[in-house]
């Protein structure tokens, strides 16, 4: 077999029993027109043909990019490697089951779509993109500058432009002096004004893990106190993971302190929280005289007894 007047033989070729000719160690330069000759045992030419051989690189894993314009989704499928690559789009339902198009570009209306895949292929391989569920809901940005009502100064407290879809704005590296009322301006990514909102910002110190103290009372009850630093702490109590009630404790409006009734035992937990953090501490209730344990006894004797 000859290619560009060069004879291809030896360890580059092999002929199978069914007459198939195999080429080994193929590279891109092997593509082109081949002249094939077949001879009998005495050298007589029995067949002579010309064959066109095209050598292609296999297709790489395709990637899909999405852009939104006025509620319309534009999808682009690209493969970094591969020769003469063709593309098609399909919905995904366990396997590709519905064709949507045969180009690397696809336009869809709305955001309520099934999962899609892009299939890239050539004559030697086929690859499918990762499943994608298009979403073209409008996004917006929040100006990095918040305008406070108080003082009239501009304070830049937000360094991140992107806002979540639920309009959550995250502020980092805050200090206590930034508390106050603010006006927030919201714009779509195309620069169109969306809305203005007034917000009240309160910055609190987080609570610390609470400290528990226990004191025995006269008749065997146990007074348990809980303390934590931090702003506006809110306390709650549980005994063996169950909220306290009147059967085990004497409760009061001062939730930092509870009085446990006699003969009550088990792990008691004080939990504290405010708007920015929470913490808890658990201790085993101590045993006090009159609380299931005999303590020292005192006797009062009358004179002359």
From TrEMBL:
GO terms for cellular component: cell-cell junction; membrane. InterPro entries: CD2/SLAM_rcpt (IPR015631), Ig-like_dom (IPR007110), Ig-like_dom_sf (IPR036179), Ig-like_fold (IPR013783). Residues 210-286 form the Ig-like domain. Keywords: Glycoprotein, Membrane, Signal. Its main location: membrane. Transmembrane segments: none annotated. The keyword Glycoprotein applies. Gene3D superfamilies: Immunoglobulins. It is found in: Membrane. This is Ig-like domain-containing protein. It comes from Synaphobranchus kaupii (Kaup's arrowtooth eel).
